[in-house]
Amino acid sequence: MGNPQAGGDTVAPTAHPARRRRSIPLTAFFGAWAVLFALMTAWVFATPPSASPDEPAHIVRAASVVRGELVGTPSQSGHIVTVPRYIAESHAVTCFAFNPAVTANCAFTPSADPWQSVEAPTTAGLYNPLYYAVVGLPSLVFHDAGGIYAMRILSALLTTLFAALAFAIVFTMRNRRMPLLAFAVAVTPMLLFLGGSVNPSAVEATATLAVFCGMLAITLSPDPARLTGRAVVVMAGAVVAVNSRGLSPLWVALALVIPLLLLTDRDALVALLRRRAVIVLIAVVAAGTIAAGLWTVGTNSLANAIEHPDQALSFPGIGSSPLVGFQKVFIGTIGYSQGLVGLFGWLDTPAPDVVLYLWGLAIGAVAVGAVVVLRRRRLLVAWLLVAAFLLCPALVQAAYIHGGGMIWQGRYNLPLFLCLVVGLAALLGDTAFVRASYAWRRIAVIVVVGAAGAQFWAFEATLRRYAVGSNGSMRTYLFGQPAWAPPGGVWLWLAVFAVLLVAAAALLLHVSAWSRQPEEVVDAVAASPALEEEQPRRQDEALQQPEAQQEPQPSLTPAGTGL
Asked: How far apart are CA 237 and CA 258, in angstroms?
């Protein structure tokens, strides 16, 4: 690959006679999907029903949307909709919310007729219905609380689908080691926890990451043979993401635009925009964004709490100046970031301090490395990613505080967090220490083993909090009769999660630390000034080359499998 310090940030694909390269490597895609889905499913069962932020409201919303009730009737407690009784009863099993010392063993007797239709409130009544129309489907089949677990599993399946697509796209990039390893940091315990509950935040985050990784691959590792497949991933991720939550179009816009700055000049951008796959991509994303905008404007979901305070929850800070909102969120960035790594339950169960410190160390190392090592376009893109992560939350809160109060939560910034971690790693992907195998393997082992250990600790501590309370006995938790236990018992899920983490760590080490870079031409280009100077011209030619005239490209996937 061209030397990033010289400004030649992109490399055109080499024209070797070989099989046509696949858009998505199936082995990497299905492997990542299976591992991530299994890890997230462990969180599905280890978390009591209604034990994630506002989950009862999302459960009721999903069950009502799938039955054709898109909004419901406004009221002071939320929008009133009609759902099965067992769905409505999810509000009644939150005795532990905001009190870590209380176990999840709520004194509640389910109704004898759980399938009876009743009215229930939901504070998510104005949210975009796309996510809920999918995850609400199991409530049409199940007649008891098993339907809630099924809804969680479907949400986890959708969340991990986009995470796996992002991973597979990165797998096709030339300098893939660093960004692949970055998934160990990007996939935080909080992402697994949210993905294992009924909540659109995790789907929004991974769909945005798929958009960002697709754009990174198009600009950092251009390949005409893979452009159509990458464009399809970007389209799917963008349409789902923008229709997830009210602020989603902002995150998707940043994920689309920032990577384009890596193109070496205007001619390269024009050549890219002329490609048929890119034209279709723009049209589909525009249509999806317009649909999301029409829903947001039509329901007034972003400003409803401001214009109709009698129909919304009241938050502190109403009437304060925008400067106060900006200052509180910007200065509190580190505190809010706890919600990106591990702040479970109803934001009342933080991950152990060591887990937070380890993640902070890893993120800081990547950020400092990017600022110190990168130059020119790559440095500009790195600073934009950092600035977006730091400033966007503060700007959003500044715009909202006067009429709606302090509403920001750390998890709202998950989409930009994922893009920041993977993006900085991709920009650092061909630096010297990554190419030095002896140093890289040590780094990979430290990151993967540290992340796996921290994941298990966060999982165990959260499960213990619900089983015996934050002040409960470890002996009772492991060897006695805890007040609450997940289906199958505590030991089952501790063992399952540990085995899954070992498998995930081994696979990630294999693909990121010991696998060869997919293009042997990388080192030759880096060592040749003449080839380096030729890169912008080769990139433009590659982008302008019609798809029908492309020469076959060498396969990057094991046994030539792909989609």
From this structure: 16
- DSSP string over 296-353: HHHHTTTTHHHH-GGGS---TTTT--HHHHHHHHHHTHHHHHHHHH-EETTTTEEPPH
What is the Cα Rg of the chain in Å?
24
Is 543:222 a contact under the CB 8 Å cutoff?
yes
Tokens 């004194």, residue located: 107
* CA distance between the termini of the chain: 25
Whole-angstrom Cα distance, residue 228 to residue 170?
Answer: 15
Q: pLDDT (tens digit, 9 = 90+) per residue, 444-478?
A: 899 999 999 999 999 999 999 999 999 999 999 99
Q: What is the pTM of this model?
A: 0.86
CA 12 to CA 120: how far, in whole Å? Answer: 57
Q: Closest Cα to residue 205, out of 191, 225, 189?
A: 191
Please answer whether residues 356 and 190 qualify as being in contact, where contact means their C-beta atoms are separated by less than 8 angstroms. Answer: no
For the chain, what's the residue count?
563
- Are 351 and 461 a contacting pair, CB within 8 Å? yes
What burial class does residue 234 get, using C-beta atoms within 10 Å of its C-beta: 0-12 exposed, 13-18 middle, 19+ buried?
Answer: buried
Contacts of 253 (CB under 8 A, 6+ apart): none
The residues with which 84 forms a beta bridge, in sequence order, are 117
pLDDT tens digit string along 299-334? Answer: 887 766 555 555 555 677 788 889 999 999 999 999
- Measured CA to CA, the distance from residue 226 to residue 35 in angstroms comes to 25
**∠ at Cα 373 (371, 378), nearest 5°?**
70
Q: What is the C-alpha separation between 259 and 218, in angstroms, rounded? A: 9
